[in-house]
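Researcher: Sequence recovery benchmark, item below. Answer with residues only.
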């Protein structure tokens, strides 16, 4: 993996700037991000059984993740607006560990990667789970949001060392 020593979002004087990607070739870019929302066993049961009063938590969280990913450049100040060619958000109840695992896969063909879109999708989906179930469990914990895999672009293919544990 190729890593630059300097931060590309800073100019020569150290001021924040948007990176110029105009000279880069269009390539297929894929990013996979993951995260989780840990909760009480009863909260997970209510979500799984569709008994949360606000509605179908997993479906609403999936839609929230998709919507957020499409608007990433409006949320993260120096992100380029991207035309996503695909975005998938999966929420999987993990009853053995009292959590919902969240995984987002983003794709585009362009000059810059989709890591931020995948991470934004996971974050928004997790926040939506919390929002919809907070009436029954204010102790839910959102965590472990991270990039699991990235393909395309100059830096090549990246897979997090322990990404396989997030596939459980």
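Model:
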């Amino acid at each position: 993996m190729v890593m630059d020593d300097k931060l590309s979002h800073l100019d020569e004087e150290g001021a924040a700037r948007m990176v110029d990607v105009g000279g880069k070739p269009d390539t297929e870019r894929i990013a996979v991000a993951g995260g989780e929302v840990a909760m009480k066993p009863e909260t997970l049961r209510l979500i799984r059984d569709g008994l949360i009063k606000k509605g179908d938590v997993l479906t609403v969280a999936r839609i929230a993740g998709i919507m957020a990913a499409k608007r990433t450049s409006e949320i993260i100040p120096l992100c380029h607006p991207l035309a996503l060619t695909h975005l998938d958000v999966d929420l999987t109840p993990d009853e053995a560990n009292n959590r919902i695992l969240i995984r987002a896969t983003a794709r585009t063909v362009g000059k810059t990667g989709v890591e931020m879109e995948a991470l934004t999708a996971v974050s928004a989906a997790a926040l939506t789970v919390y929002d919809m179930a907070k009436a029954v469990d204010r102790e839910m914990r959102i965590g472990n949001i991270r990039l699991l895999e990235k393909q395309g672009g100059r830096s090549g293919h990246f897979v997090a060392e322990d990404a396989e544990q997030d596939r459980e």
